[in-house]
Write a structure and sequence with these properties.
Helix 4 packs antiparallel against helix 5, helix 8 runs antiparallel to helix 12 and helix 12 packs parallel to helix 14. It contains 17 helices and two strands. The radius of gyration is 26 Å and the shape is globular. Helix content is about 75%, strand content about 0%. A two-stranded antiparallel sheet has the order 1-2. The longest helix is centred in the middle third of the chain and has 31 residues. The N terminus is likely disordered. It is mostly helical.
Length: about 425
């Protein structure tokens, strides 16, 4: 509101306020107009979403620094295939399991502290890769610490969830989930940057994380109505673990996101072995698969804002199941095999987005971080069983058909369960 300011007229009477203010007359001295509270809150929501998505992308790039360079590490350190696989697996496994405490700590301390803190701490193992790259034991130890970068998923989900209303939450969570594209960015750019200098990728990623940590400390804000739990970390995790829905969502996410991780790890090997592609061509095709999953993750969230996310999950997993059956019959890559693999990617990407829209609807706000941590961990861990199974089946049978049929069975079971059980859960708000 403005402030009334008057000055006396020459005859000593108080004049009537004129239409426009004057130094010798009454007028309204205006102050700078403030946008209404809903507008400011919406701007804060999008600021937090964008900042969290950028951070998620950068930390996932750091999390995946070892995998694109594993061939060079194998030659440098004279590693066996098992040692090379272990080197790649350690940061992924640690990052997946680390989401459980990271989500619970976010419930307690908020994303404003956790996001810049975890991003800054990830700089340490990234830089330690430089002196450790000539020693296998040191690489394993640094890879363990590098898993910290994979925990930011469980920090960003409760942050985004708190800022957006239920009607817009699915799309917002899907957009945040696109940060998993940091893995694909690392796979494409890290080896190309390393061609100029073997240490250059580590310096670039560390510098980007430093700049981001400083910006995130300023730009990220917790929702003013955030409920802070008072009980201990162990108690909150125990409560989340006792919720039936936690494990139902974990199973669905292990199929959706686990399938994405599995194909990210094993698809280049499959294309090289079965379709006799060159390593470069197989890597390009695998990158296309990953891109489709990233694009369709917000699609799953957007659809979940309009219909129940359980129905979206069921339809997406059914599509993945049908395409896995098609691929089990070893079709020619062009066009049928390409269509089947890309449609499978679309289904898995959509399901990974809709499952977390479901998390936001059936989980109490104060427990979203804890539940997200467990569900995210199961999704990450679920991605490392299928490649082992596919490799074992091919070694025994010289065929991938059984592996694709098993994937189809899992996806179909998930679709039936999502439709039969999860669609009956009450929507919040």
């Amino acid at each position: 509101m403005g402030r009334l300011r008057c000055a006396a007229s020459p005859d000593g009477s108080t004049p009537r306020a004129p239409p426009s203010p004057s130094p010798l007359t009454c007028g309204v001295e205006t102050t700078a107009a403030q946008p209404p509270a809903p507008v400011r809150r919406e701007a804060a929501a999008f600021r937090n979403l964008i900042t969290a998505t950028v951070g998620f992308t950068l930390t996932f790039w750091a999390w995946n620094l070892v995998s694109p360079l594993s061939g060079a590490f194998k030659d440098r350190l004279d590693l066996s295939s098992f040692q090379q696989s272990l080197l790649v697996a350690v940061p992924v496994l640690v990052g997946s399991l680390g989401r459980v405490p990271a989500g619970a700590l976010t419930d307690r301390f908020g994303a404003k502290l956790m996001f810049p803190l975890v991003s800054a701490l990830t700089i340490v193992p990234v830089l330690l890769l430089i002196p450790a790259k000539d020693n296998y034991a040191a690489m394993l130890a640094v890879g363990f610490l590098l898993g910290l970068g994979g925990t930011t998923f469980a920090i960003g989900i409760p942050l985004v969830n708190s800022w957006f209303p239920p009607a817009k939450r699915g799309l917002a969570l899907g957009i945040f989930g696109m940060g998993m594209g940091g893995v694909a960015l690392s796979g494409y750019f890290t080896p190309r940057i390393a061609e100029h200098d073997v240490n250059l990728p580590f310096w670039i990623v560390a510098g980007a994380l430093l700049v981001y940590s400083l910006l995130a400390a300023v730009l990220i804000t917790d929702h003013p109505d955030r409920k802070v739990p008072e009980d201990s970390l162990g108690h909150r995790l125990g409560q989340a673990g006792r919720l039936r829905v936690t494990w139902e969502l974990s199973a669905l996410y292990a199929i959706g996101f686990g399938g994405i991780v599995a194909f990210g790890v094993y698809l280049p090997t499959y294309l090289k072995t079965w379709y006799e592609m060159s390593p470069t061509e197989a890597g390009t095709k695998a990158a296309g698969f990953a891109l489709v999953t990233v694009v369709f993750r917000p699609v799953g969230g957007w659809l979940s804002d309009r219909i129940h996310p359980a129905l979206v999950t069921a339809a997406a997993l059914l599509l993945a199941a049908l395409m896995a059956v098609v691929q089990a019959f070893d079709p020619p890559l062009y066009p049928l095999g390409t269509i089947a693999l890309l449609a499978m990617a679309a289904g898995l990407g959509t399901a990974s987005g809709s499952v977390f829209a479901l998390v936001s609807q059936v989980t109490p706000q104060a427990a979203v971080g804890s539940v997200t941590g467990i569900v995210g961990a199961m999704g990450g861990l679920g991605g490392f069983v299928p490649p082992l199974v596919m490799g074992a089946i091919y070694s025994a049978k010289s065929s991938y058909s059984i592996g694709f049929m098993l994937l189809s069975d899992l996806a179909l079971a998930g679709a039936v369960y999502a439709y039969g059980r999860m669609r009956t859960l009450r929507r919040d708000g």
